[in-house]
Amino acid sequence: MKIMVVEDDLTSRTMLASVLRKWCYQVAAAETGEEAWDMLRAEEAFRVVILDWIMPGISGLDLCRGIRSEATVNPLYVIILTARRERGDIVAGLEAGADDYIAKPYDADELRARIQVGRRVIELQLALNERVRELESAVSHIRTLQGIIPICSYCHKIRTDKQGWERLETYISEHSEAEFTHGICPECMSRHHAELLPGG
C-alpha cells in the first residue's frame, strides 16, 4: 500500500517516512500542500495520506477539503497528524474531511494501528466499488432485452432504435452476451431437405 506523508518540517517528515517504510509501506513525501496536491492529481496509487495541519501555503485542512471535493472512484484515507489537540481542532479536522486525527507527539503503535484501520476501510471500499460495477453491468445487460421488441411476423427481423431492421440473431448478439450456432430442426429438415432424410 502506498502512503503519502505531507509535512513541511524536514526532520518530522524524514522520521515518519522512515517508520512507515520499516512497516513495509511504500512512501512518498511532500513538503507543502501544493506539492502534495500535484502528486495526488498525477497519481492515483495512494491509499493513505498523513498530513500536518500547519503548513505554508495550502494548509492541511485546505488540502483535506480539496481532496474531498474531487470526484473520484479511488478511495483515499486521510489522517491529520498535528500538534493541535484541542477538541475544536479535532472537530474542525474531521469536518474538513479527515478520516482520523492524531495529536503529536504520536505513539508509534497507535499510529500503526490507525493506519491498519485505514487499510481495512480502503479494502472494503475497493471491494464495494468492484461489486457496484459488476451489478451495474448486470443491470445494463438485463435492461437491454426488456420491454416490447418489434419483430416482423414473416422474416422475424427486429426493428432497431434507428428504424432499421436486423436479423434476430444479430440483434440479440449486440444486446446481450449470447452467441449463436446454426443448425436445422427436424421440421425444417423435412420441409426443405427431405431428400437427405432416410427414405427421401
Give a brief outline of the structure.
The protein is an alpha/beta fold and 200 residues long.
Structure description:
- 47% of the residues lie in helices and 15% in strands.
- The protein has seven helices and seven strands, in the order E-H-E-H-E-H-E-H-E-H-E-E-H-H.
- The longest helix has 37 residues, at 108-144.
Beta-sheet strand percentage?
15-25%
Q: Report the strand count.
A: 7
The poorly predicted ranges are none
CATH architecture of the largest domain: 3-Layer(aba) Sandwich
Largest sheet: 5 strands, parallel
Total helical segments: 7
Distance between the termini: 73 Å
| CATH first level of the largest domain | Alpha Beta
Q: Which fold name corresponds to the CATH topology of the largest domain?
A: Rossmann fold
Task: State the helical fraction.
Answer: 40-55%
In CATH, what is the homologous superfamily of the largest domain? Response regulator
- State Rg: 30 Å
Spatial order of strands in the largest sheet: 2-1-3-4-5
Secondary-structure-derived class: alpha/beta
Order of helices and strands: EHEHEHEHEHEEHH
Features:
single chain; Rossmann fold; 2 domains; two-stranded antiparallel ribbon; 7 strands
Spell out the blueprint of helices and strands.
Layout: E1 2-6, H1 10-22, E2 26-30, H2 33-42, E3 46-51, H3 60-69, E4 77-82, H4 87-95, E5 100-103, H5 108-144, E6 158-159, E7 165-166, H6 168-175, H7 186-192
Parallel strand pairs: 1-2, 1-3, 3-4, 4-5
Antiparallel strand pairs: 6-7
